[in-house]
Protein backbone atom coordinates (compact mmCIF):
# COMPACT_ATOMS: atom_id res chain seq x y z
CA UNK A 1 0.00 0.00 0.00
CA UNK A 2 1.16 3.51 -0.81
CA UNK A 3 0.35 6.26 1.69
CA UNK A 4 -0.43 9.63 0.16
CA UNK A 5 0.91 12.69 1.96
CA UNK A 6 -0.20 16.31 1.83
CA UNK A 7 2.13 19.01 3.18
CA UNK A 8 1.03 22.39 4.55
CA UNK A 9 3.83 24.88 3.92
CA UNK A 10 6.02 25.16 0.84
CA UNK A 11 9.07 26.89 2.34
CA UNK A 12 10.56 24.56 4.96
CA UNK A 13 7.97 21.97 3.97
CA UNK A 14 9.24 21.98 0.41
CA UNK A 15 12.92 22.24 1.30
CA UNK A 16 13.20 19.64 4.06
CA UNK A 17 9.97 17.72 4.64
CA UNK A 18 9.38 16.87 0.99
CA UNK A 19 12.76 15.13 0.36
CA UNK A 20 12.47 13.38 3.73
CA UNK A 21 9.04 11.94 2.83
CA UNK A 22 10.29 10.98 -0.63
CA UNK A 23 13.07 8.97 0.99
CA UNK A 24 10.57 6.73 2.82
CA UNK A 25 9.34 3.65 0.94
CA UNK A 26 5.60 3.27 0.53
CA UNK A 27 4.97 7.03 0.56
CA UNK A 28 3.97 9.46 -2.18
CA UNK A 29 3.67 13.21 -1.60
CA UNK A 30 0.66 14.16 -3.71
CA UNK A 31 -0.35 17.59 -2.36
CA UNK A 32 1.09 20.90 -1.21
CA UNK A 33 -0.83 23.70 0.50
CA UNK A 34 -0.05 27.39 0.93
CA UNK A 35 -2.27 30.32 1.89
CA UNK A 36 -2.96 31.57 -1.67
CA UNK A 37 -3.91 29.90 -4.93
CA UNK A 38 -1.09 31.45 -6.95
CA UNK A 39 1.63 30.41 -4.49
CA UNK A 40 0.15 26.93 -4.07
CA UNK A 41 0.05 26.30 -7.82
CA UNK A 42 3.55 27.67 -8.25
CA UNK A 43 4.88 25.50 -5.42
CA UNK A 44 3.23 22.36 -6.79
CA UNK A 45 4.78 22.97 -10.20
CA UNK A 46 8.22 23.79 -8.82
CA UNK A 47 8.29 20.82 -6.43
CA UNK A 48 6.77 18.29 -8.80
CA UNK A 49 3.70 17.68 -6.64
CA UNK A 50 0.45 16.63 -8.31
CA UNK A 51 -2.12 18.72 -6.42
CA UNK A 52 -2.23 22.26 -5.03
CA UNK A 53 -4.41 23.41 -2.12
CA UNK A 54 -4.85 26.90 -0.69
CA UNK A 55 -7.31 25.88 2.03
CA UNK A 56 -5.69 23.63 4.63
CA UNK A 57 -9.06 22.46 5.96
CA UNK A 58 -9.94 21.25 2.45
CA UNK A 59 -6.69 19.31 2.22
CA UNK A 60 -7.24 17.83 5.69
CA UNK A 61 -10.68 16.57 4.57
CA UNK A 62 -9.60 15.20 1.21
CA UNK A 63 -10.40 11.45 0.95
CA UNK A 64 -7.35 10.77 -1.22
CA UNK A 65 -4.83 11.92 1.40
CA UNK A 66 -3.75 9.55 4.18
CA UNK A 67 -1.18 11.63 6.08
CA UNK A 68 -1.09 15.38 6.58
CA UNK A 69 2.16 17.13 7.43
CA UNK A 70 1.30 20.40 9.18
CA UNK A 71 3.71 23.31 9.31
CA UNK A 72 3.47 27.03 10.18
CA UNK A 73 2.07 28.75 13.29
CA UNK A 74 0.73 26.65 16.19
CA UNK A 75 -2.44 28.76 16.43
CA UNK A 76 -3.12 28.15 12.72
CA UNK A 77 -2.34 24.44 12.96
CA UNK A 78 -4.64 23.48 15.81
CA UNK A 79 -7.96 23.73 13.89
CA UNK A 80 -6.41 22.07 10.83
CA UNK A 81 -5.12 19.26 13.01
CA UNK A 82 -8.56 18.73 14.56
CA UNK A 83 -10.11 18.66 11.08
CA UNK A 84 -7.55 16.11 9.91
CA UNK A 85 -8.11 13.82 12.89
CA UNK A 86 -11.89 14.09 12.53
CA UNK A 87 -11.53 12.89 8.91
CA UNK A 88 -9.34 9.89 9.69
CA UNK A 89 -5.97 11.36 8.73
CA UNK A 90 -2.68 10.49 10.37
CA UNK A 91 -0.77 13.63 11.32
CA UNK A 92 2.88 14.70 11.32
CA UNK A 93 2.73 17.93 13.30
CA UNK A 94 5.28 20.70 13.75
CA UNK A 95 6.70 21.74 17.11
CA UNK A 96 5.52 23.46 19.27
CA UNK A 97 2.71 20.92 19.13
CA UNK A 98 -0.02 23.37 20.24
CA UNK A 99 -0.45 27.10 20.86
CA UNK A 100 -0.78 26.48 24.62
CA UNK A 101 -2.08 24.10 27.25
CA UNK A 102 -5.77 24.41 26.41
CA UNK A 103 -4.98 23.74 22.76
CA UNK A 104 -2.82 20.77 23.71
CA UNK A 105 -5.69 19.21 25.66
CA UNK A 106 -8.10 19.76 22.76
CA UNK A 107 -5.66 18.14 20.34
CA UNK A 108 -5.14 15.21 22.69
CA UNK A 109 -8.90 14.62 22.98
CA UNK A 110 -9.26 14.69 19.19
CA UNK A 111 -6.31 12.33 18.77
CA UNK A 112 -7.53 9.88 21.39
CA UNK A 113 -10.95 9.75 19.70
CA UNK A 114 -9.50 9.29 16.22
CA UNK A 115 -7.35 6.20 16.56
CA UNK A 116 -4.87 7.86 14.19
CA UNK A 117 -1.09 7.86 14.40
CA UNK A 118 0.23 11.26 15.45
CA UNK A 119 3.90 12.21 15.37
CA UNK A 120 5.61 15.50 16.23
CA UNK A 121 8.34 16.94 14.03
CA UNK A 122 10.84 16.93 16.91
CA UNK A 123 13.50 14.67 15.47
CA UNK A 124 16.58 15.40 17.61
CA UNK A 125 16.35 11.93 19.15
CA UNK A 126 17.02 10.51 15.65
CA UNK A 127 20.23 12.53 15.16
CA UNK A 128 22.86 9.74 15.27
CA UNK A 129 24.93 11.17 18.16
CA UNK A 130 21.87 11.89 20.32
CA UNK A 131 20.27 8.57 19.45
CA UNK A 132 23.44 6.78 20.58
CA UNK A 133 23.63 8.95 23.73
CA UNK A 134 20.07 8.01 24.73
CA UNK A 135 20.81 4.34 24.11
CA UNK A 136 24.01 4.43 26.19
CA UNK A 137 22.18 6.06 29.11
CA UNK A 138 19.57 3.29 28.94
CA UNK A 139 22.33 0.68 28.82
CA UNK A 140 23.90 2.03 32.02
CA UNK A 141 27.02 3.72 30.61
CA UNK A 142 26.75 6.55 33.17
CA UNK A 143 25.26 4.42 35.95
CA UNK A 144 22.30 6.03 37.70
CA UNK A 145 21.63 9.45 36.12
CA UNK A 146 22.18 12.34 38.55
CA UNK A 147 21.92 15.54 36.53
CA UNK A 148 23.07 17.58 33.62
CA UNK A 149 22.73 20.58 31.35
CA UNK A 150 20.87 21.04 28.09
CA UNK A 151 21.23 24.08 25.83
CA UNK A 152 19.55 24.88 22.54
CA UNK A 153 20.54 28.46 21.79
CA UNK A 154 20.46 30.05 18.34
CA UNK A 155 20.54 33.60 16.96
CA UNK A 156 17.52 34.38 14.83
CA UNK A 157 16.81 38.07 15.31
CA UNK A 158 20.02 39.56 16.69
CA UNK A 159 20.49 40.62 13.08
CA UNK A 160 16.97 40.28 11.73
CA UNK A 161 16.51 39.35 8.07
CA UNK A 162 13.42 39.55 5.93
CA UNK A 163 14.68 36.48 4.08
CA UNK A 164 13.92 34.42 7.19
CA UNK A 165 10.47 32.84 6.67
CA UNK A 166 9.46 32.86 10.36
CA UNK A 167 9.32 36.55 11.23
CA UNK A 168 5.83 35.88 12.62
CA UNK A 169 7.72 34.65 15.70
CA UNK A 170 7.18 38.24 16.87
CA UNK A 171 3.42 37.70 17.21
CA UNK A 172 2.11 37.08 20.69
CA UNK A 173 -0.92 35.12 19.45
CA UNK A 174 1.09 32.56 17.46
CA UNK A 175 1.87 30.25 20.39
CA UNK A 176 5.64 30.54 20.08
CA UNK A 177 8.62 31.72 22.13
CA UNK A 178 12.27 30.85 22.51
CA UNK A 179 11.42 28.48 25.36
CA UNK A 180 8.33 27.03 23.67
CA UNK A 181 10.11 26.40 20.37
CA UNK A 182 13.68 25.47 21.22
CA UNK A 183 12.70 24.24 24.67
CA UNK A 184 10.17 21.82 23.20
CA UNK A 185 12.73 20.42 20.78
CA UNK A 186 15.07 19.82 23.74
CA UNK A 187 12.38 18.28 25.95
CA UNK A 188 11.53 15.46 23.52
CA UNK A 189 14.96 13.77 23.71
CA UNK A 190 15.25 14.55 27.43
CA UNK A 191 11.99 12.70 28.12
CA UNK A 192 13.13 9.83 25.88
CA UNK A 193 16.38 9.63 27.85
CA UNK A 194 15.30 10.27 31.44
CA UNK A 195 11.55 9.67 31.62
CA UNK A 196 8.88 12.03 32.96
CA UNK A 197 9.51 15.41 34.57
CA UNK A 198 8.10 15.77 38.09
CA UNK A 199 8.47 19.51 38.79
CA UNK A 200 10.03 22.66 37.33
CA UNK A 201 11.06 26.18 38.13
CA UNK A 202 11.66 28.62 35.29
CA UNK A 203 12.50 32.11 34.11
CA UNK A 204 11.26 33.11 30.65
CA UNK A 205 11.97 36.61 29.39
CA UNK A 206 12.58 38.87 26.41
CA UNK A 207 16.14 40.12 25.96
CA UNK A 208 15.74 41.58 22.46
CA UNK A 209 13.18 44.36 22.81
CA UNK A 210 13.50 45.29 19.14
CA UNK A 211 14.35 43.54 15.87
CA UNK A 212 16.21 45.70 13.36
CA UNK A 213 16.07 44.62 9.71
CA UNK A 214 18.50 45.23 6.85
CA UNK A 215 16.37 48.05 5.46
CA UNK A 216 16.15 49.80 8.82
CA UNK A 217 12.64 48.64 9.70
CA UNK A 218 12.18 48.00 13.41
CA UNK A 219 9.77 45.48 14.93
CA UNK A 220 8.76 45.28 18.57
CA UNK A 221 8.28 41.57 19.31
CA UNK A 222 5.44 40.44 21.56
CA UNK A 223 7.12 37.14 22.45
CA UNK A 224 9.78 36.06 24.93
CA UNK A 225 13.04 34.82 23.46
CA UNK A 226 15.20 33.41 26.29
CA UNK A 227 14.22 30.72 28.79
CA UNK A 228 16.01 29.07 31.69
CA UNK A 229 14.58 26.23 33.74
CA UNK A 230 15.43 23.53 36.24
CA UNK A 231 13.74 20.22 35.53
CA UNK A 232 13.47 17.65 38.31
CA UNK A 233 12.78 14.25 36.78
CA UNK A 234 10.63 11.67 38.54
CA UNK A 235 13.54 9.24 38.84
CA UNK A 236 15.84 11.81 40.45
CA UNK A 237 18.04 13.77 38.02
CA UNK A 238 17.91 17.56 37.88
CA UNK A 239 18.69 19.11 34.49
CA UNK A 240 19.37 22.75 33.73
CA UNK A 241 17.63 23.78 30.50
CA UNK A 242 18.48 26.93 28.57
CA UNK A 243 16.67 27.54 25.30
CA UNK A 244 16.13 30.54 23.10
CA UNK A 245 16.68 32.34 19.82
CA UNK A 246 18.46 35.51 21.00
CA UNK A 247 21.99 34.49 22.01
CA UNK A 248 24.71 36.62 20.44
CA UNK A 249 27.16 34.23 18.71
CA UNK A 250 25.02 31.33 19.86
CA UNK A 251 26.42 28.13 21.35
CA UNK A 252 23.93 25.80 19.63
CA UNK A 253 23.19 22.37 21.12
CA UNK A 254 24.59 20.82 24.29
CA UNK A 255 23.26 17.82 26.18
CA UNK A 256 25.64 17.00 29.04
CA UNK A 257 24.35 14.24 31.29
CA UNK A 258 26.23 12.60 34.15
CA UNK A 259 25.56 9.76 36.55
CA UNK A 260 27.13 7.67 39.28
CA UNK A 261 29.50 5.96 36.84
CA UNK A 262 30.15 8.33 33.97
CA UNK A 263 29.25 11.22 31.72
CA UNK A 264 27.96 11.62 28.15
CA UNK A 265 27.87 14.81 26.08
CA UNK A 266 26.49 15.66 22.65
CA UNK A 267 27.38 18.97 21.01
CA UNK A 268 26.49 20.78 17.80
CA UNK A 269 27.28 24.35 16.69
CA UNK A 270 23.62 25.10 15.94
CA UNK A 271 20.43 23.01 15.76
CA UNK A 272 21.83 19.44 15.91
CA UNK A 273 22.08 17.48 12.69
CA UNK A 274 23.44 14.17 11.49
CA UNK A 275 26.56 15.87 10.09
CA UNK A 276 27.71 18.14 12.90
CA UNK A 277 26.51 16.65 16.20
CA UNK A 278 29.30 14.85 18.06
CA UNK A 279 29.28 12.43 21.01
CA UNK A 280 31.74 12.48 23.90
CA UNK A 281 31.93 10.38 27.03
CA UNK A 282 33.95 8.84 29.83
CA UNK A 283 33.22 6.18 32.42
CA UNK A 284 34.60 6.46 35.95
CA UNK A 285 36.18 3.01 35.64
CA UNK A 286 38.27 4.27 32.68
CA UNK A 287 39.58 7.39 34.48
CA UNK A 288 42.90 6.87 36.30
CA UNK A 289 42.50 9.84 38.66
CA UNK A 290 38.88 10.29 39.77
CA UNK A 291 39.60 13.76 41.21
CA UNK A 292 41.22 15.31 38.11
CA UNK A 293 39.18 17.36 35.60
CA UNK A 294 37.55 15.06 33.10
CA UNK A 295 39.02 14.71 29.64
CA UNK A 296 36.08 13.33 27.70
CA UNK A 297 36.82 11.03 24.78
CA UNK A 298 35.19 11.17 21.35
CA UNK A 299 32.95 8.12 21.08
CA UNK A 300 32.38 6.20 17.88
CA UNK A 301 28.86 6.15 16.49
CA UNK A 302 28.09 2.86 14.70
CA UNK A 303 27.48 3.16 10.97
CA UNK A 304 24.01 1.73 11.46
CA UNK A 305 23.04 5.07 13.05
CA UNK A 306 24.06 6.94 9.89
CA UNK A 307 22.53 4.68 7.26
CA UNK A 308 19.20 2.91 6.99
CA UNK A 309 19.00 0.39 4.15
CA UNK A 310 15.31 1.10 3.63
CA UNK A 311 15.72 4.87 3.20
CA UNK A 312 16.77 6.57 -0.01
CA UNK A 313 18.99 9.04 1.89
CA UNK A 314 21.55 8.76 4.69
CA UNK A 315 23.28 11.04 7.18
CA UNK A 316 25.35 12.68 4.42
CA UNK A 317 22.26 14.10 2.67
CA UNK A 318 23.01 17.80 1.99
CA UNK A 319 19.90 19.14 3.76
CA UNK A 320 20.91 18.30 7.35
CA UNK A 321 17.51 17.70 9.02
CA UNK A 322 16.25 15.34 6.33
CA UNK A 323 17.84 12.09 7.49
CA UNK A 324 16.68 12.16 11.14
CA UNK A 325 13.32 13.51 9.96
CA UNK A 326 13.00 10.63 7.50
CA UNK A 327 13.72 8.14 10.29
CA UNK A 328 10.82 9.57 12.31
CA UNK A 329 8.57 9.47 9.24
CA UNK A 330 9.61 5.90 8.46
CA UNK A 331 8.70 4.81 11.98
CA UNK A 332 5.37 6.62 11.64
CA UNK A 333 4.55 4.79 8.42
CA UNK A 334 5.47 1.47 10.05
CA UNK A 335 3.16 2.26 12.98
CA UNK A 336 0.30 3.06 10.61
CA UNK A 337 0.87 -0.38 9.13
CA UNK A 338 0.68 -1.96 12.58
CA UNK A 339 4.43 -2.49 13.00
CA UNK A 340 5.81 -0.91 16.15
CA UNK A 341 5.13 2.44 17.80
CA UNK A 342 5.65 5.92 16.41
CA UNK A 343 7.90 8.39 18.22
CA UNK A 344 7.78 11.09 19.37
CA UNK A 345 4.04 10.55 19.41
CA UNK A 346 1.16 12.78 20.52
CA UNK A 347 1.19 11.22 24.01
CA UNK A 348 4.72 12.54 24.56
CA UNK A 349 3.68 15.80 22.92
CA UNK A 350 1.03 16.25 25.62
CA UNK A 351 3.66 15.74 28.33
CA UNK A 352 5.99 18.27 26.67
CA UNK A 353 3.11 20.75 26.57
CA UNK A 354 2.31 19.96 30.22
CA UNK A 355 5.92 20.75 31.08
CA UNK A 356 5.71 24.00 29.10
CA UNK A 357 2.57 24.99 31.01
CA UNK A 358 4.28 24.19 34.32
CA UNK A 359 7.22 26.38 33.30
CA UNK A 360 4.85 29.20 32.39
CA UNK A 361 3.16 28.95 35.80
CA UNK A 362 6.52 28.79 37.53
CA UNK A 363 7.55 32.00 35.75
CA UNK A 364 4.32 33.74 36.71
CA UNK A 365 4.21 32.53 40.33
CA UNK A 366 7.98 32.44 41.04
CA UNK A 367 7.93 28.94 42.55
CA UNK A 368 8.50 25.27 41.80
CA UNK A 369 5.47 23.84 39.99
CA UNK A 370 4.71 20.11 39.98
CA UNK A 371 3.47 18.72 36.70
CA UNK A 372 0.70 17.00 38.64
CA UNK A 373 -0.76 20.49 39.21
CA UNK A 374 -1.26 20.89 35.46
CA UNK A 375 -4.53 19.08 34.86
TrEMBL record:
It comes from the Bacteria. InterPro entries: Gfo/Idh/MocA-like_OxRdtase_N, Gfo/Idh/MocA_oxidrdct_glycsds, GFO_IDH_MocA-like_dom, NAD(P)-bd_dom_sf. Residues 135-264 form the GFO/IDH/MocA-like oxidoreductase domain. Residues 3-117 form the Gfo/Idh/MocA-like oxidoreductase N-terminal domain. Keywords: Oxidoreductase. PANTHER family: BCDNA.GH03377. This is Gfo/Idh/MocA family oxidoreductase.
